[in-house]
Amino acid sequence: MEKSNLFNVDEFGVKNYNYGILALVSFSLFILINAVLGYVTFTAESAAMGSPVKDYADAFWLMLMSSTTIGFGDVYPITLVGRIAVFIMFILGVGILGTVGAIFANKIFGFADTNIKNRELRKQNEQILQLNNKIYQKLTVLETKLAALDKAQK
């Protein structure tokens, strides 16, 4: 196991990721980014007249709705800083949530578990190479015997 415990490398050199830790780190990063950008949006929007963002809860809600692409429209930014924060949250939130969703879908449903296929193929290749080496050794012995018989007949 590697020091960060994010993955371990098996005997075939395949990285096997620890999906629990990856999901925890991704979710924590998601919440942290929501909280920080929510604060930035709250700070920018609370000074603007007519902004629907009245308190931090509204700003945090705006970040959650932006990150999930739902965007109900009940809370929206009117300042440039607020709009930039929402844009950043939209890009990062979609990326993080999409990654976490893909990890869980792959882990639960196993759509593309190529690690298992790669291990099986590497094991088969190893067996084929061992068999080829045995055959090569037997052929070498046979060639030596044939050469000796050929010499004896001459």
From TrEMBL:
GO terms assigned for molecular function: voltage-gated potassium channel activity
Its membrane topology: Multi-pass membrane protein
Protein name: Two pore domain potassium channel family protein
One Gene Ontology cellular component annotation held by this UniProt entry: voltage-gated potassium channel complex
Keywords recorded for this protein, A-Z: Ion channel, Ion transport, Membrane, Transmembrane, Transmembrane helix, Transport
Alphabetical list of InterPro entries matching this protein: K_chnl_dom (IPR013099), VG_K_chnl (IPR028325)
Residues spanning the membrane: 20-44, 56-78, 84-109
SUPFAM superfamilies: Voltage-gated potassium channels
Location relative to the cell: Membrane
A Pfam family of this chain: Ion_trans_2
Domain Potassium channel residues, every copy: 30-108
BP GO terms, sorted: action potential
Gene3D superfamilies: 1.10.287.70
Organism field: Colwellia ponticola
